[in-house]
Amino acid sequence: MAMPGLMDKLPFPVIVPDWSEVPAKVKAFTTTREGGFSLGPFAALDSSGGLNLGDHVGDDPQAVQKNRDKLNLTLPADVIFLSQVHGNMVLDAANLQPGSQADAVLTNQAATVCAVLTADCLPVLFTDMAGSVVAAAHAGWRGLAGGALENTVAAMRARGAGELVAWLGPAIGSSQFEVGRDVFDAFAAKIPNLHAYFRIKGNEGGVEKYLADIYGLARNLLNDIGVTRIYGGDHCTVSETAEFYSYRRDKVCGRMASLIWIDGGPQG
User: Fold this and answer.
1) What are the strands of the beta sheet with 256-262, ordered from one edge?
2) Is 167 helix (H, G, I), strand (E, B) or coil?
3) Cα(21)–Cα(216) distance, rounded to whole angstroms?
């Protein structure tokens, strides 16, 4: 069973993966924009404090630190966030330092938190069926096209992971993700049936515009490398204004965190 009662215990709203086959010792959730101390464009929709966890978006540093402190109180250890660069590098959490540049992190150690920050890009949380290895990956379109998910899966398997399970966290939905031909072309060599994930929206000044399905692209890429147990992919950060920050919608906005770890305590 996946984390019974977790949402009732946390001091802020979260989204919990719906992967019931994952061992209970694997803990995971994604934060929302609610339940923190940030104000202005980083506040919750009702103007109460927002739980912005990004320290690079122009928010009051003291508010961000208070938000991170509030988050850390719910975790087995303080999280060290990656400096994300829309690439495909994967780091072991044991080697993380503040400012480490990568877009995915993994661990096979208990009570070690893996996390990524997003506000429209796709967060993907991974574990294997035994709960022996976990990972968090940040995948916007550049990361997806560049192999961020494939590299994360390969790194997990190199550490002895068995059959993998993936959860696609909150990201921009296919009705909102307008992209140009450059994004279409970036996936052309990777995915043969590309038109299944790109719907032509129109032509602006001779430039083709598409609506892209980032969840569908991720599922396709994961299936190609043998990951077929895939959950999530049912939110839209742009449309769900009250729940999520969205860079595409607001430009100036906070960041949510998607986190996963192996519980080191007694298992029920």
Assistant:
1) 14-15, 26-31, 256-262, 114-118
2) strand
3) 22
Give pLDDT tens digits for 136-165: 999 999 999 999 999 999 999 999 999 999
**Residue with the two structure tokens 């038109």:** 195
Beta-sheet pairing, 90-92 with 104-107: parallel
* Distance (Å, whole) CA 38 – CA 52: 6
Q: With bands split at pLDDT 50, 70 and 90, how would you rate the model's confidence at 4? A: very low
Handedness of CA 72, 161, 93, 234 (dihedral sign): negative
Q: What is the pLDDT of residue 6?
A: 56
Ordered structural domains, the chain, with CATH = 6-171+227-262 (3.60.140.10)
pTM of the predicted structure, to 2 decimals: 0.95
The SS3 of residue 155 is: helix
